[in-house]
Amino acid sequence: MDKGLKLTNEQKQQLRLTPLQVRYVRMLEMTGPEFEDEVRKAVDEMPALEASAPEEETGRGDALPLTEDGGQFTESDRDLQAADYRSEDDIPEYLSRQFRRTSQASPEDYFEPVVAASGASLIENLIGQLEQQDITDDERLIALHIVGNLDDNGYLTRDLQAIADDLAFTEGKDFPVYEIRRVWERVRELEPAGIGAVDLRDCLLLQLRRLPRSVESVAALEIVRDYFDLFAKKHFSRIGGAMGISEELLKDALAVISRLNPKPAAQLDSSVGEGPQTVIPDFHVDVDAADNFTLTLLNRIPELNIERTFAADAPLPEASPRATAAAKLFLKQKRDEATDFIKIVGLRQQTLFRVMQTILNFQRQFFLTEDEATIRPMVLREVADASGLDLSVVSRATQGKYVSTRRGVYPLKMFFNERRNKELPAETEDDNTVHRIIASLRDIIGGEDKRRPLSDEQITARLRQQGFDIARRTVAKYREKLGFPVGRLRKTL
């Protein structure tokens, strides 16, 4: 008997998300127009899903209940909940009269596409995500060189040793390869999934590892990891035989792979200074004379219901018991499919509204003044903690989303910024955001003598007089971000 063999019991905990949750995650990442298209597509493809006509919705809305004196009952659910508290001071923020909400735009409201400033470049987008994680100056320098070597698809075009050599030659800093690799791994964790891959297989694996764990996603991961050559040659039957899985599971796994993005950087603005782009806002914030907010989710989608003939109590034509059982099973499957979709739509809307409401609470002063200098330091983790949502949910809910106000349209990512000066006391940190520094820098350059423009050293000194103790290279970075050349090039006669 081989004493090396032994029988052991092992207990593992695994989190597996249902197909319903997987679809919710995908839908959460969609922009407003993409979400509306998804709803229209579902209504066309799901026989049990019905979209209420606008006139039907209006008819139901006009039939308001009456009060005891014969008038119309107009109190909202928020008003009824707020009435349970003793005083206005006890009312939570989400029920406060200073914050009114509408779940989505009414049919008569129309928010046409607007031209907004283009998003940050690929480099700025990825570095901005890293800075929310609080990176050191050396890590930022390494990350800049790594991101600078990504191609238009988001793939890394140079090996890590070559990047280390570049840093030693151009920056005079000798970083070990393991340090370069550690920062590279952090870049590969950024959004969108797949950034920093070395080839297509690596890109797909990065995305598959981010997906919620399910039978289909695990099978898809194994296909790309262990059978990529067969997959590339479309020898799917051989893959199924080698893995010992059913044809149906193989088909589902291949469908998961087909939804991945082989060019992750394509969804970012990979160019620098390409100009404005047309966007459709996802939210609208309005402020009245009493500083009360109204937040509106702008997705205009119809009310979704289960079609009457698919209802649980819908009569069936007379048929044999076997045919009747088959008909009932078919109706139940289609009804459950439509019910799940309605749940996902509602959950997406609630999540987006919750995230935007939290951002509005954090950035209240900005939405009152729309002065970028009033944007307070805020990172994804703070929004996740305040809203009670997972960090990944907040990241997906804010990716590619915009909010409109009376004065303009702003990307949600604009409200997230790193705490700028790690050397200042904690009590002064809230007053030192990137936006405040940039606003001060813009004012300094705007008010300089154009015949004797200020150097970066002089601008740094003036910023320090205002309480911003930052390095000259940081001033140069923000000056370039604002589009101002060096001092000698700003000189006019």
What does this protein structure show overall?
- The chain is α/β, with parallel strands linked by helices.
- Helices cover 48% and strands 6% of the residues.
- The chain is built from 22 helices and nine strands.
- The chain has helices at 19-28, 32-45, 54-62, 77-82, 122-131, 137-148, 160-170, 177-187, 200-210, 215-226, 228-232, 236-243, 247-258, 321-362, 364-369, 380-387, 391-398, 426-429, 434-446, 456-465, 472-481, 487-490; strands at 49-51, 99-102, 114-116, 277-279, 283-287, 293-297, 304-306, 402-404, 409-411.
- It has a five-stranded mixed sheet, with helices on one face. The protein has a two-stranded antiparallel sheet with strand order 1-7.
- The chain starts with 18 loop residues before the first helix and ends with a helix.
Topology:
Blueprint: H1 19-28, H2 32-45, E1 49-51, H3 54-62, H4 77-82, E2 99-102, E3 114-116, H5 122-131, H6 137-148, H7 160-170, H8 177-187, H9 200-210, H10 215-226, H11 228-232, H12 236-243, H13 247-258, E4 277-279, E5 283-287, E6 293-297, E7 304-306, H14 321-362, H15 364-369, H16 380-387, H17 391-398, E8 402-404, E9 409-411, H18 426-429, H19 434-446, H20 456-465, H21 472-481, H22 487-490
Parallel strand pairs: 2-6, 5-8
Antiparallel strand pairs: 1-7, 3-4, 5-6, 8-9
Helix content: 40-55%
Shape: flat
Query: Count of DSSP helices?
Result: 22
Q: Indicate the proportion of strand residues.
A: 5-15%
Note poorly predicted spans. Answer: 54-78, 92-112, 115-119, 269-276, 419-432
What structural category do the secondary elements indicate?
alpha/beta
- Please describe the biggest sheet, giving its number of strands, its sense, and whether it closes into a barrel: 5 strands, mixed
The N- and C-terminal alpha carbons lie at a distance of 96 Å
